[in-house]
Amino acid sequence: MITSGLMKHRRGKLSFPIIIIIVCVLVFIAMLHAERLSFISSKSIFKFKTCPRKNTKPQSILAGDDKRVEEEYVLNASWIDDRFEFDSKECNVGNGKWVFNHSIKPLYTDTTCPYIDRQFSCVKNGRTDSDYHHWEWQPKDCTLPRFNPELALRKIQGKRLLFVGDSLQRNQWESFVCLVEWIIPEKHKSMKLGPIHSIFNLKEYNASIEFYWAPYIVESNTDINIIGDTRKRIIKVDAIMDRAKNWSGVDIIVFNTYVWWMSGLRIKSLWGSFGNGYEGYEEFDTPIAYKLALKTWANWVDSTINPNKTRVFFTTMSPTHTRSEDWGNKKDTRCFNEREPVKKKKHWGSGSDKRIMSIVAKVVKKMKVPVTFINITQISEYRIDAHSSVYTENGGKLLTEEERVYPQNADCIHWCLPGVPDTWNQIFLAML
Ligand SMILES: *[C@@H]1O[C@H](CO)[C@@H](O)[C@H](O)[C@H]1NC(C)=O
Ligand SMILES: *[C@@H]1O[C@H](CO)[C@@H](O)[C@H](O)[C@H]1NC(C)=O
Ligand SMILES: *[C@@H]1O[C@H](CO)[C@@H](O)[C@H](O)[C@H]1NC(C)=O
Ligand SMILES: *[C@@H]1O[C@H](CO)[C@@H](O)[C@H](O)[C@H]1NC(C)=O
Ligand SMILES: *[C@@H]1O[C@H](CO)[C@@H](O)[C@H](O)[C@H]1NC(C)=O
Ligand SMILES: *[C@@H]1O[C@H](CO)[C@@H](O)[C@H](O)[C@H]1NC(C)=O
């Protein structure tokens, strides 16, 4: 963590970080004297190690007498506040940019981590370009600490962490497992994969990192035996208990649901008294069906989850990049062969439905139980270069060399691992 605390000053003059460190140390000592040792909770120690850029005073002030300024800083200690650590309320994490840094290495690869699905194992599947591994997200107003596996394990020690949702949630779950698993000795960990519920057990830490397949969160006729024909899919927008009974008692729960709703303009929905087997469905416009389902989820959370025991997170929609026109590529090649993130600020494509985003925001706002957003949409929107693309499988079979030359075979929904979901988890860990 200390290194990450220093890093954000890398663009300043050499003497600048040293002054900040001295100030931090002086203030720390001063506070120790004032507050005694009771002041040191692990949290406050953590704070002192991550001074964000925005709290540093303009360089011009520092041009004068260093010592005087230092004293002034200590006297004016009010600027040392909670913003020392990444705070999602203070800092809009979506406002920032991807910075290329060749010396950044992912913490794992798709060969070192044994838990990555074929769908996300791009390098193993033949992807040879590697620039997409070296981009780092930098929010404008704060510093996002790098993912620290030891810290992550400490935060989930004695706890159950459960990811509930679709294959993108699985993408995020596998990323989280791979980010931490490599520091745990073989005999202290185990993975139990299931078609619905998968559990990664960390015995030494008395913890687990789990995934529960529920692509709409609510129930549907295509949860377990997936129906290929999207027109035959019917969603029980007001039914959740069948799946949700397996989610109680966890300490940290992370939901998502988006991409499965985007299969058409209207959704066949079973709702209230219409329910008469799967025959009695109604067709709703997608946002209406989505809203009904999300309210069902919100009611379940509010009536079941004890916020004193369980923290609830919601990962916002992961953008799909199937229309290359969105980023000015007229060749209609989806995300095929894209090698760089979109540069245009606030780029927002047609694969992220703003109506859905506003429904999620509105429903959550009315809930009793606090729900923290892992708002990944904007940051991921830039990353047209980081999808599985043609380095994936189709119907359980790896694409052949011949199949790989066709852009229409590219998967522009899921993400390579290591890759963008590692940044989602970096944000998640900072808020945990
Ligand atoms: C310290 O606080 C005083 C009074 O609020 C202010 O005038 C002064 O500019 C501050 N100094 C610094 C370095 O922020
Ligand atoms: C997520 O961030 C985007 C912009 O970065 C914003 O438009 C949207 O409202 C946020 N979503 C939620 C649910 O807060
Ligand atoms: C790039 O990453 C390395 C290794 O983490 C770090 O030391 C360096 O300061 C970074 N450079 C920039 C320009 O961000
Ligand atoms: C492990 O965690 C569970 C709760 O998740 C707790 O009931 C149990 O006492 C813990 N066991 C140890 C050995 O810490
Ligand atoms: C869900 O919970 C029930 C008991 O409450 C259990 O029998 C069942 O195996 C669980 N299902 C999954 C997929 O975990
Ligand atoms: C949570 O804790 C607070 C303060 O300890 C208490 O007032 C409240 O009743 C608790 N809520 C629940 C649902 O247990």
TrEMBL record:
Its main location: membrane. The chain crosses the membrane at residues 14-34. InterPro entries: TBL (IPR029962), TBL_C (IPR026057), TBL_N (IPR025846). It is a single-pass membrane protein. One of its GO terms (cellular component) is membrane. Residues 144-431 form the Trichome birefringence-like C-terminal domain. Keywords: Membrane, Signal-anchor, Transmembrane, Transmembrane helix. This is Trichome birefringence-like N-terminal domain-containing protein. It comes from Lupinus luteus. The lineage of its organism: Eukaryota, Viridiplantae, Streptophyta, Embryophyta, Tracheophyta.
